[in-house]
Amino acid sequence: MSEITPDVVAEHGLSPEEYERILAAMGRAPNLVELGIFSVMWSEHCSYKSSRLHLKKLPTEAPWVIQGPGENAGVIDIGDGKAAIFKMESHNHPSYIEPYQGAATGVGGILRDVFTMGARPVANMNALRFGEPDSPKMRHLINGVVAGIGGYGNCVGVPTVGGETNFHRAYNGNILVNAMTVGVADTDKIFYSAATGVGNPIVYVGSKTGRDGIHGATMASTDFEEDSDAKRPTVQVGDPFTEKLLIEACLELMATDAIVAIQDMGAAGLTSSSVEMATNGETGLRLNMDKVPQREEGMTPYEMMLSESQERMLMVLKPGKEAMAEAIFKKWELDFAVIGEVTDTGRMILEWKGDIVCDIPLGPLADDAPEYDRPYLETPKPEPLADEPESDDPLVDLEKLLGTPSLASRRWIWEQYDHQVGADTVQAPGGDAAVVRVHGSRKALGITTDCTPRYCFAEPVEGGKQAIAEAYRNLSAVGAKPLAVTNCLNFANPERPEIMGQFVGCLEGMGEACRALDFPIVSGNVSLYNESKATGGGSAILPTPAIGGVGIIDDWRKTATIAFKEAGEAIMLVGEPCHHLGQSVWLKELHDREEGQAPHVDLALESRHGEFIRDCIAEGRVSAVHDISDGGMLVAVAEMALAGGVGAELNLSRFKEKSLARLLFGEDQGRYLVTTDDPHALFLAAKEAGVALEPMGHTNVSQSLSIEGDGSVSLEALRSAHEGWLPSLMSGEI
After folding, report:
1. Residues taking part in catalysis
2. Angle 155-158-163 from CA coordinates, rounded to 5°
3. Among 262, 293, 686, 703, which is least packed, fewest CB within 10 Å?
C-alpha cells in the first residue's frame, strides 16, 4: 500500500494535529485504507467537529418527540398510532459541480434517510439558493438542479410539494441545494440503526458499489478552489428507478421481524453506515470486502469503503432470516449479500483476499472524533437605517418588485415537479405551506421550508429567531399546529472567526425561538465551508440556516389558502401596522441598499398570533390567510389577489401620518393578512385573544389592486410581471 506521507495526510483533509491523534488512537501508523476511513469519519460533513459543541444547545425534546437528533431522521407522534419521520440535508458542492446528478442524489439520499426508519415517504421539499441570475453558469445550474430534483422525485413516485428559491450574489460560486423528505410510519414499526447481537449477520442490499462519489464527504468539507470542475468524479450518480425498488423491498422486509438494525449508505458510504451502526449499538464489526457487490473490476478496499454509490443500504438481520430476506430483494431485482457479522470487539476489522487490511478501534472514529471550540467574533449590530427613502408611487413599486429575482413567481420551477403523485396533496406549491393528507385519514401534515439569509447576515441572533418564527407562521397560516423542526445549517468557513460568529449567533436565535414556540429540533444537517475562491478572493455565502417545519392538521378539510375567495370580504391585518424598513426586499431591489437592522422578532407575539390564526381557521372565521414576509403587506395583498383572481381596494386614509414605504413594504414580523365576511365577529375574537386587528380594505370585482385615492394597477399587469421573469431568464431573453 502507499506510504503515508504528510502530503497524503493533507490530501485526505486531515491536519497534522489530527494525524497525531490518529497515531495516538491506534498506537501505530495507519495504512491507506485506515487513513481513508479516518478522513471521511473526521470530515466536517460526518463528524460535525466545528459544530457539535453548539448543536448541543438546541432544544430537541417534547412529549410528542419519539426520536430526536442522532438517528437517520427525526420522529414525532402525530396520533392514531402514526408517526411523521423527516429530515433535511444538503448537497451543495456536488450540485455546483454537476447540477443534475448533485441535486438528484441529494433527493435520493434524503429519501433513504426517511424510509430507512420504516416510513413510506409522502412528500419532498427543497430549499435552493442561486447566485445572480446573469452570473456565469447560473442558468445552467438552475436548469440542472431543477431537472435533477424533478427527475428523481417524479420517477421515484414521491410528490415534491413545495420549497423556496432565492437569488443573491453571495451564492455565485457556491449554490445551496437542500432537500427534505417527510414520511409516515406506524409508531410500533420504527427502525433504528444500532447494531446489536454478537454474531448477527451484516447484510448489504441495493445497487452494486462503483467508484463514483469517492471522497464525496471530504470534498463537501472544504471550500472550492478554482478547479472545482476537476472534482466531478466525486459526484455520485443516482438511479431513481432502483430507489423505488429499494423502498418497496425495504418496506416489505420491515413488515417481518427480520431486521435488527438498518442504515442508509449516505455520505462516506459503507464506512459511515457500518461505523454508525456499530457505535450506536456499542458493538464491533467484521466485514469481508470480497463479498461486497461490485460494479467495476479490480476495486480495492479503500475504494469500496469510501465510495458513495447510490441506492445502497446496510442491515443487521436476526440469525436464520437471511434466506427470507434475500428472496425479497431478489424479487425486486436488487443485490443482496451477507458481508460480515456483529462482534463484541469494539473494533472495525476488514478482510480482503485473506488478509486483514483494516483494524481500527471504533471509539476514535465516531464518539471520540475531534470536537473544536472554534474562536468566534460576534457580528457587530448594524446601524439603524439612515436617509430612509419614501415610495412616490407604491403601485408602480409593487409592479416592479413582483418582477424582481427576490419576489418573482417560482412557478417555472415547481411546475416541473410532480406534486400530485400519491393523490394525497391537499395544497400544492405556491402557498405558505404544503398540506399532505395522512393517507386513509382526515389528518394532514403541514410542511414548509424557510429562512431569510439577509437577516441572518445583518443580525445572526435575530435572523436565527426569524427563520424558526417564519416556519411557525407559515404552518399556522394553513391551519397546522407546528410540532417540530429539521434544519440544514449552511455557512462558510468556520475557521474564520466572523463566520463562526454567524453560526453561533444563528443557533442562539434558533434555540430561543424553538423554546418559546415549543417547536423542537429533531433532525438536521450542518454544511460548512460554503465559499469559493473561483469567484475571486474568497466568496462566502450568506449565513443560511434553512428550516424545515412540520405541523399537524386534525381535519384536512379545515385548512386555509392564500387566495382571495370572493368580492365583498374585509381584508384585515393581524398585528400592528409596519414601522421597520431595514433589510427589506423593497430597499434591496428598488434602491440597491442592503442596509439597516433586521426586523425584531417578538416570540410571545408570534405564539399568540399563531394560535389565534389557527383557531380562526379551525372555526371557519376566515376565508383566506397569508403571512406577511418578503416585500411586506402590499406584496402579500397582491399575492392573495393573484392566487384567487379577485381584485381588492385598500383604504389607508387613517395612516396618512405614516411612511407609505414602511406601511406597505416594511417587513415587521408576526403579522398575517386574512379575509372574512364577518369582520365584527373577528374583532370580538381578536379582542378576547389579545390580538391587534386592523381593517385594511376589501376585496372587489375590479380585477385590479387599488389604493383609495392613490390609483390602481390591473391584476393582468401584476401577473405579467410576477410570472414572466423566471421563464424569460431561463429562455435567455434576459
Report:
1. 45, 91
2. 110
3. 703
Element (DSSP H or E) covering residue 65: strand 65-67
What are residue 689's phi and psi, to 5 degrees? -85, -5
Phi, psi dihedrals of residue 554, rounded to the nearest 5° = -70, -30
Q: What is the per-residue pLDDT across 288-305, written as a single tens digit (0 to 9) for each?
A: 999 999 999 999 999 999
Residue 655 has pLDDT above 50, yes or no: yes
The answer to whether 246 touches 311, Cβ cutoff 8 Å, is: yes
**Are the C-beta atoms of residues 463 and 455 closer than 8 Å to each other?**
yes
Q: Report which of 456, 464, 459, 454 is spatially closest to residue 485, judged by C-alpha positions.
A: 464
Other residues' Cβ atoms within 10 Å of the Cβ of residue 206: 27
Q: What is the pLDDT of residue 233?
A: 54
Euclidean distance between CA atoms 560 and 613, whole angstroms? 10
The DSSP result for 561-617, as a single string, is: -SS--STTPEEEEESPPP---TT-HHHHHHH----SPPPP--HHHHHHHHHHHHHHH
CA–CA separation, 201 and 597 (whole Å): 58
Domain ranges within the chain, ordered by starting residue: 560-734
Q: How far apart are CA 177 and CA 131, in angstroms?
A: 12
What is the mean pLDDT of the segment spanning 661-687?
97
Helices (H), 405-459: 411-414, 453-458
Three-state secondary-structure class, residue 254: helix
Q: Look up cell 397546522; give the residue.
A: 480
Q: From CA 192, how far away is CA 421, in angstroms rounded?
A: 28
Q: For 205-214, 293-302, 511-520, 695-704, which range has the lowest pLDDT when averaged over its residues?
A: 205-214
User: Which residue, among 446, 423, 430, 280, has the nearest Cα to 363 in the 3D structure?
Assistant: 280
Residue 256 has pLDDT above 60, yes or no: yes
Judging by beta carbons within 10 Å of its beta carbon (0-12, 13-18, 19+), is residue 675 exposed, middle or buried?
A: buried
| Percent with pLDDT over 70 in the chain | 96
Which among 110, 264, 115 is positioned nearest to 184, based on CA atoms?
A: 115
514 contacts 74 by C-beta, under 8 angstroms: no
Q: How far apart are CA 118 and CA 121, in angstroms?
A: 9
Write the CA distances from 291 to 202, 205, 288, 326, 358, integer angstroms: 11, 12, 6, 15, 16
Mean pLDDT, residues 595-612 taken together:
97
Query: Is the pLDDT assigned to residue 234 strictly greater than 70?
Result: no
Q: For residue 569, give every residue at least 6 positions away whose Cβ sits within 8 Å of its Cβ, in sequence order, or none.
A: 623, 624, 675, 676, 677, 698, 699
177 close to 95: Cβ distance less than 8 angstroms: yes
